[in-house]
Amino acid sequence: MYRVFEALDELVTIVEEARSVPMTSGCVVPRGDVLELLDEVRDSYPSELDDAQDVLDHRDELVNKAKTEADDSLSTARSEAEKTSSEARAEAEKMLADARERADEIVAQARADAEQTINNARREYEDYIARAQSESDRMVQAGRAAYDQSIHEGRSEQARLVSETEVVQQSQHEAKRVVDEAHEEAERLRSDCDAYVDSRLADFEELLGRTLRTVGKGRQQLRRPMSAPFDYEEWQTSEHGTAVSEH
């Protein structure tokens, strides 16, 4: 390309320095030199210009070919998109069915766990009540025995010291005190039993609340539209959190 510009500069110089033709605007130039420079210019042009001209000559053909290829690509892309959409829809329906089945299993397991917890709490409550009642009866019997023993000792002491009525009264007061303490201890055990059962029932109520919240989250996931993805991480996190709380 540098030689092309150089030859053009030489042609300009030849034309500028050429002898003018009198009474005209023309000039006389050396034909051989001009033709030689023109041949050099033509030979120095890069072959890419010819290729570019060929591209220009066949641009309509290239444009039509590109358009045809684009239409084919668009048709293929649409087919792939429809296929992908169908597969995604089938996968979503399968995931929804699996989620519903899993939710049913969780609800059934929660009901079974709740029933088992209720039965365990009832058995534990009844066992604790029975032990408390047995302990209360034992302490009442012990109080009565102590009371009878005190009465017996008081009577013996009264027989020995008939004139000392104060000793007899103290024995009676002591026997009454023992009986009262036995009754108070029985009431205390009953109150402790009731408090323990109430705390166990409160724990069970909290467990049921967490289970119901887990079931509610599962139902909310099932009611979401098909476009919304099913959040398995949230589902698994909620399920594991409930399992840990139960243990």
UniProtKB/TrEMBL annotation:
Compositional bias of kind Basic and acidic residues: 79-92
PANTHER family (alphabetical): SLR0848 PROTEIN
Protein name: Cell division septum initiation DivIVA, interacts with FtsZ, MinD
Start and end residues of each stretch annotated as Disordered: 66-92
UniProt KW keywords: Cell cycle, Cell division, Coiled coil
Superkingdom assignment: Bacteria
Biological process, per Gene Ontology: cell division
Coiled coil: 172-199
